[in-house]
Amino acid sequence: MIVRRLELDFFRNYPHLEADFDPRVNLIYGDNAQGKTNLLEAISYLSAARSHRARYDREMIMLEIGSAFVKGEIDSRGRHFSLEAKLFRGRGRQLSSNGVRLKTAGELAGILNTVLFCPEDLLLIKAGAAERRKFLDGAICQLRPRYAQALTEYNRLYDHKTRILRDWPENPSLLQTLDDFNLRMAQTGAIVIHYRAHFVKRLREHAPAIHADFSGGREGLELNYETVSTVDDPQKQPRELLPLLLEHQEKHRQAELDARQCLSGPHKDDLAVTISGQSAKTYASQGQTRTAALSLKLAQREIFQEETGEWPVLLLDDVLSELDPKRQSFVLNRIRGGQVFITCCEEEKMEGLEGGKAFHIQNGRLM
Q1: Residue 229, Cα to own-chain centre: how many angstroms?
Q2: Residue 343 and residue 37: Cα distance in Å, rounded?
Q3: Which residues of 241-268 are buried (b: 16+ CB within 10 A; e: fewer)?
Q4: How far is it, in rounded angstroms, from Cα 294 to Cα 274?
Q5: For the chain, which residues make up each domain, given as ranges?
Q6: 230 with 266: CB under 8 angstroms?
Q7: pLDDT of 124-170, one tens digit each?
Q8: What is the pTM of this model?
Q9: Fold classification of 1-113+311-367 (topology level)
Q10: CATH code of the region 123-309
């Protein structure tokens, strides 16, 4: 998969940008707060209509401007795709592929796969469960359209149920709709759990070996998917998971009413990471944390390649400067093949990566 060209209008701090990229290495350099990360965010957004740092699309629109535009010319699966995203304040976005309007973001799945490393990802292991769910969701949404659709629907239902539980004491009639929302959340939640479990299984096939190489064989990485307690095997088919989720909901019904919070469902899932038998979140050193986080992302990249037969576009946002020379060398040796975008503060030759282009970004403009 190759990003041949990118056009931006009023995206973040870019009034306008047109850039043609190298199919191998693209070095994006410039001082801090000039727009390097914004450029990678735009590329990543075209893969699944999701941002790694914005909850709402309006956050990516330039201040005091009503809309933004992102367009990418992509080579993928032996075909050429022209992907467009129009973002608006106050109304929904518009996505299109080769001029055809897309109904959902899930229809982008498989066209452009990206794997992003950013400084925040080095805290992936130490952060709360929400960060690890975000990692799983971002990866699976690029591969599985059905998952992207189910996740969007689940989040919508979760928001509605949260409002019901919050407001029912003042408006008891709201409880008449609770059973319907519980059923629909269990149906979509079963799909979410099924796909997450199978992706974690794939991670277990790749990440421990990468981590072992990374650590010189001194440490063992283990991954475990944690979901609602009534689910004994999350890899079961969604129809088999449905009654187990309904059972869990019923057990927590009164607790939810008392707490006025949604306590049952995959919105509380976690990916437990263990290093040499100890919880990485609690006991991992800074070096172990970085090694484990990078192992997860490199495993994601290898899974994408296995699934599609093509390397995903790799986006390295100021990550290498955070690593010691040994880890830098390991990452650079592991990412041979495919297109790579690297941001840094100074134009410099990246040892181990040959050829490519360098782009100087200054105040949202390509110099």
Answers
A1: 25
A2: 7
A3: bbebbbbbbeebeeebeeeeebbbbbbe
A4: 14
A5: 1-113+311-367, 123-309
A6: no
A7: 899 999 999 999 999 999 889 899 999 999 999 999 999 999 999 99
A8: 0.87
A9: Rossmann fold (3.40.50)
A10: 1.20.1050.90
